[in-house]
Amino acid sequence: MQSAQSRRSFLAVLSSASVAGLIGARDSFTQEAPPETTTVRLAKNDGICIAPQYVADELLRAEGFTDVRYVKSTPAAVSDAMGRGEVDMSLHFAAPLITGIDAGAPITVVAGVHVGCFELFAHEGIRSIRDLKGTKVGVQGLGLAPHVFLASMAAYVGLDPVKDIDWVLSPSVRPKELFAEGKIDAFLGFPPEPQELRARNIGHVIVNSALDRPWSQNFCCMLAGNRNYVRNYPVATKRVLRAILKAADLCVTDPARVAQRMVDAGFTARYDYALQTLKEVPYGKWREYDPEDTIRFYALRLHQAGMIKVSPNKILADATDWRFLNELKRELKG
Amino acid sequence: MLVTIILALTLLASPTLAEAHDARHHTQEQRLPKIAPAPGFTLTSQDGAQVALADFRGKVVAVTFIYTSCADTCPVLTSMMAHVQDQLGHDFGVKVVFVSITVDPERDTPAVLKQYAQTFAADLAGWSFLTGDAVAIRDVTRQYGVFASKSANGDVDHTFLTSIIDRRGILRVQYLGVRFDPDEFRRDLLSLLQEP
User: Fold this and answer.
1) Which residues, 6 or more positions from B31, have their beta carbon under 8 angstroms from its beta carbon?
2) Rounded distance, CA A298 to CA A311, Å?
3) Partner of A90 at 20 to 30 A CA spacing, among A164, A195, B61, B133?
4) Interface pTM (ipTM) of the complex?
5) What is the pLDDT of residues B52-73, one digit of tens each?
């Protein structure tokens, strides 16, 4: 918010300056300036809640990017790939971004894009997060998005995620399948998993992050970039963010076409699950919530659970930059 | 007392004063950012005339992108703009103009656009519906950051973006989608009339 205020003051001070002079100001990420690089590499994986990223290619080209690449990566590896500079920018889940930053990955978070990706499924007898105490919860690996999110959820309700939950690690078999077979009691599903389980009428949802507070008030997916990319290419960064936000709007206004495009481009196989995801995930709320609140919220929970060492304030100070989003909130209404 | 009541009634009955108040409030609250010089264009109007963005210098311009056979969302946007047109009263056409550019130039000829304009009771003294050759349309959509792609069934998959350009030709704000607040949109247009 500080930087937004500074920019307002800056504009007010320069209101009498010539338009050309104002637009040429170097500390403004002006739209007419071409991107400093015409290449952007985004992550691609099985998760389809990052749909805006998958349909942003033409919008990115309209922003001046001639080389738009999707780098295959598991959701678990996005933070590492971004930190190593193999992925320039990507939508990614808030909690694993924080653990990646804590582990030293040079990542800068620039915006929250949508809430409501994940749903916590459980079998009969489990009605709340507290009921997870002593139960078997499946994850493909410790430190991956489902584990990190679930650990922060457990910490939020007073459980010790290390001692109170019996984590069942299943690197080769997806927890969704173990859950369907009754071998675990609960798991955190990400699209298209919840849509598939509901279609198969398996288990019940005890937390829907699109509906249940406080999860529904915090971003699930945020746009982040390699620190050097964001620092060296501020115009490109702003243009990537604008393309992603426009694509998020496309997900709201025309989910059927977005679903079809995702299938046609090979990002997912099932049109019906993709369409359901697009209708269920609230893609139009990027203006409503403060991404800083999200980082603080999850960082506090993870710090409390002993899963990160760096303080939430330090993460906010060193690994976030909301100037791009603050400018676009003023320039792109809706 | 009587003077106060008359003054209050006068204020309520006067859209010009009320709008001026709106605009002043808006200006005090937050001036619209100056994003960039608006991309220029020269296209063909519903009357077959050549129309350039530069022709509107000195007026506040709202530029949007539609196509006439769009059955679902474009009519929502055009209806909303027609509503704002009516609210702008005498300022419309004189100080504020609208430009709707088709993203389907193959089908949207000037005659088709004129019929579309009449359907929405667009006041053509202040509202231009523009078409052109496919390359020119593609260039202008791209320059304004609008994605448009024709599908096999003839529908056009496109993003909705309405841009407001000030009297000096500077792009000041863009509205995403079709369900934005028409009052905020009108206030933004009026706020630019208050600027020197």
Assistant:
1) A8, A11, A12, A15, B191, B195
2) 11
3) A195
4) 0.72
5) 999 999 999 999 999 999 887 8
Chain A residues within an 8 Å CB radius of B31: 8, 11-12, 15
Please give the model's pTM, rounded to 2 decimal places.
0.79
Residue-wise pLDDT for B105-162, tens only, equals 999 999 999 999 999 999 999 999 999 999 999 999 988 888 888 877 777 878 889 9
Q: Can you give the C-alpha Rg of chain A in angstroms?
A: 20
Nearest neighbour of B149 by CB, restricted to A30, A58, A330: A58
Please indicate if any CB of chain A lies within 8 Å of the CB of B145.
yes
Spell out which chain A residues touch chain B, with contact meaning CB-CB distance below 8 angstroms.
8, 11-12, 15, 19, 22-23, 30-32, 58-59, 62-63, 242, 245-246, 249-250, 252-254, 257, 261, 284, 327, 330-334
Q: Using a CB–CB cutoff of 8 Å, tell me whether B174 touches chain A.
A: yes
Give yes or no for a contact between A225 and A110, defined as CB atoms under 8 angstroms apart.
Answer: yes
Exposure b/e, B177-195, CB count within 10 A at least 16 = b:
bbbbeeeebbbbbbbbbee
- DSSP symbol at A102: H
Nearest by CB: B160 against A253, A327, A331: A253
A221: its two tokens: 């997916």
User: Cβ contacts (< 8 Å) between B168 and chain A: which residues?
Assistant: 19
Residues from chain B contacting residue A63 (CB–CB below 8 Å): 145
Concatenating the DSSP letter of every residue in B143-178 gives: HTT--EEE-TTS-EEE--EEEEE-TTSEEEEEEESS
Residues of chain A predicted below pLDDT 50: 1-31
d(CA B127, CA B81): 10
Are the beta carbons of B176 and A332 separated by less than 8 Å?
A: yes
Report residue B74 as tokens.
Answer: 């474009």
CA dist list (Å): B146 to A29, A254, A323: 19, 15, 23
Classify strands B170-176 and A332-333 as parallel, antiparallel or unpaired.
parallel
User: Per-residue DSSP letters for chain B?
Assistant: -HHHHHHHHHHHH-HHHHHHHHHHHHHHH-PPP--EEPPP-EEE-TTS-EEEGGGGTTSEEEEEEE-TT--SHHHHHHHHHHHHHHHHGGGBTTTEEEEEEES-TTT--HHHHHHHHHHTT--TTTEEEEB--HHHHHHHHHHTT--EEE-TTS-EEE--EEEEE-TTSEEEEEEESS---HHHHHHHHHHHHS--
